[in-house]
Amino acid sequence: KENGKCCLGIFGSVELICSVCSSHAASVCHSCFRRQEKLQRCGQCRFAQYCDKTCQRAAWEEHKQECAAVKSYGKVPNENVRLAARILWRLDKQGSVVSDTQLAALEELEDHIYDISEDDLKDFKVDIHNFLDYWPRSSKPHTVDSVSKMLGVINCNGFMVSDQRGLQAVGVGLFPNLCLVNHDCWPNCTVVLNNGNQSAVDTMYHSQKRIELRALGKISPGEEVTVSYVDYLNLSEDRRRLLKQQYFFDCTCEHCTNKTKDELKMAGAVVEGDKVPEETVKEITEYSRTMLEKMEKARIEANYNEVVKICRECVEKQENVLADTHIYQLRMWSTLSEVLSYLQFFEEASTYARKMVEGYLKLYHPNNAQLGMATMRAGVTHWQAGFIEIAHGMICKAYAILMITHGPTHPITKDLEAMRMQTEMELRMFKQNEYVYHTMREAALKNQPIRMMAEPATESIKNLFRRK
Ligand SMILES: [Zn+2]
Ligand SMILES: [Zn+2]
Ligand SMILES: [Zn+2]
């Protein structure tokens, strides 16, 4: 806040210490977290992988001790254990005088060890055990208490870090200062990971990834700054359960207290002025729940034809029974459009993508990051299907949202800017001469100037905040 006036934009950014998830260790660069086809393995530990020498050099300071530890341990511990070790090495390097205020803030973070459920406690104890085996004898020894404190802090303050396109959670990280920002299901800020430009100079001086705390709208002086740890698309009851389970608190935000929009999220359709009977809505809601579980299973197995089959069957039953804001229907539309576009059935995919965005618009905050990402995806699908007017409109809308939630320097925003210019040019051409437009579009589709057909992710950006 400047001169008592409200400000809009970035509040600040903090340093991130992170480690790659074991499940994605083979597919992303351990330095910049970009998904790459060809990665170069670290010759010492044969575990770490990088895009090139620049990425490797940038990561060496963080990887040096890990490299030796992995080599002598002969195994690779999970991401939480590796992250704990990275943080402790950093703390030890700085000695007893911790000059870095961000790391000093670690002391203030909650570990909630006494709140861990019995099942999770077993895994937690295994992590402690593995840490003690992994931690080299040549490094400064730590007590079981301080190790469990560190793992506890990671457990309830760790963030999921997504890849460069924000599509998949590929790492776990800790942003010590940001953890002190409180949660609200309808927040006034959002956090976003920004690797920014990876120029040589940048890498040399700022090898650390940073995340930004960004305002979603005007914030009045004295108003508390909040972010959301859960997806708003969940019912208030489910959000509260997730928050209690993962972050150990009872949410008392306005939206939870008033159960705002819960009814919309479970509503039945109105057909020709008549409400669908409550019984029928309930029955199809239950049916959708089981179909969603089936669909998730097929999706994890990457059985995309099965996913389409399940979704189509379910969507048919939901039609004219559930409202267009019913979250089970929205989930089906979202998955169906994503998988259909992956299978290159663009026209059908675009129909569901549009329904999804229209539903999201009635539920999400107008500057919600997930809404922005979904609108972008829908825009690309329409572009692929050749509906250039709608495509351009959606890309522009998505761009406006991401300028706020991700900022102008974020790689996704830059991609969107390029798409906006491309679709604008195509739209102009379409208005002048439809034939030329269609010829050009076919050529463009073949060359795929817009590379957005990532394999449908099992974990999406909504899990950015999920505790690992
Ligand atoms: Zn890299
Ligand atoms: Zn190594
Ligand atoms: Zn809440």
TrEMBL record:
UniProt entry keywords in alphabetical sequence: Metal-binding, Methyltransferase, S-adenosyl-L-methionine, Transferase, Zinc, Zinc-finger
Every SET domain range: 79-230
Positions of the MYND-type domain: 29-67
Record gene name: smyd1b
Entry-linked PANTHER family: HISTONE-LYSINE N-METHYLTRANSFERASE SMYD, HISTONE-LYSINE N-METHYLTRANSFERASE SMYD1
Source organism: Sinocyclocheilus rhinocerous
Coiled coil: none
Protein name: [histone H3]-lysine(4) N-trimethyltransferase
EC number: 2.1.1.354
